[in-house]
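Fold this sequence, please.
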Amino acid sequence: MFIYSAKMDKKKLAAILVCLAVVAVVVILVLTGGCGDGGSGAVPDSTGPSAGVTDRDLSAQELLRSRQKLIKKARIRTAEDACSLMTELGWSVDPGPAECVEVLIPEEFSDVYTKYNELQKTQGFDLSGYAGKTATRWTVRITNHPSGEEEVYATLLVINAKIIGGDVCASRLDGFMHGLLPSDYVPDAQSSAPSGEPASAADAETAGTSDAEAAETTSAASPSGDETQANSISQDNMLPSN
């Protein structure tokens, strides 16, 4: 009887064991899907800008951005242009004629007008760069405001057909005022006038004057002569140009 024995080289044995270990690791990775996120090896970012944002939220954000772009690109030369823009922004407007008045932006802003300009800055505007210049003010009536009020007006301030500012406001003296977009409306929010201060520049100018002087100043500061729109700072703070 013959007995055959063979000795395997230790280096070859070690190499074989390493290969088997590598194969085992590869198999495990394949079976478990890489790093557990579909094999991409990337860890999901739960703090990014889309974290927790639903498709509905994204749609609302996209709609907001598209409407903001509309305002920036719009060119207002006629009443039809003004009404068309407000419609594209989501408002229903009175088919009647829009009011068009030339107004002078004050060279020096009062506290109230400064507060009004803060509202403009939230929309990407800044009236301080137009101080002392004449602008065209277009006013249209909104008929579908979420507040349910009927006397609500949108104001567009325009220079060379470009919108430089605007607002949507209720006509009553203690009414609301907000930006040009429907999403800017916050129920029960205060107007843009500073707390404890007059709601219009006309009120600010008449403070401390006699009744007769106050009436005269208020009349001069209201270009349209329409008392129902006295709440709009954009109307009360700018005198008609001569």
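Strands lie at 99-104, 134-142, 152-159, 162-170, 177-178, 239-240. Confidence is low (pLDDT under 50) at residues 1-6, 34-53, 190-230.
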